[in-house]
Amino acid sequence: MNYKKCNIYKFLVASFLSTILFSNVFAASLSLLKIGALDTGGKSYPEWWYVGTGPVLSGMATPGSDVSVKIGENSYTTTPDASGNWSYSATLEKGDYPIEISQSGEKISFTLHMGQDMAATGATQPSDTTPDATAVPETGYNQYVAFSFGIGIILLATYFYFSSDNKKNIVFESRVLKED
Length: 180
Fold this sequence. Notes:
Layout: H1 2-26, E1 31-35, E2 38-39, E3 47-50, E4 56-60, E5 67-71, E6 74-78, E7 85-89, E8 95-103, E9 106-114, H2 118-121, H3 141-163, H4 166-175
Helix pairs in contact: 1-3
């Protein structure tokens, strides 16, 4: 009987640790935080408007891996610092520019309308209160933290259950862990 308990604990601990250790693998690490003085809040929209010219694109990325910035047909690279901050000073005049920012398979694409006011073009920026039916919901690290926390609670409850009254353990093992 103790052998089965040991295996259950090993399985639960391994599940918990793998969730914590590998949660960074699935978390998005590339983000665009600013276009010049415009704070994007890390949101990704298909179009951005910037009234000025020559903005500095900046954001967060995985340290140690170059960030590629493609503006139209021209490609540039920048390297994030040890904290993951990156920036690229774009020399853009008034006009529309397709921009693609990428790093290690992650990509942010949008059209940047330089020197134009949104109201003048008749366009509207998507709002957070009207979700797009075709949009993929944003996911992030918090979901993995919540999942890890849930696994931790299950492990803790299992520990307290097995370390309590021996009669409960015998009933549990006879019903759930039937020996063949």
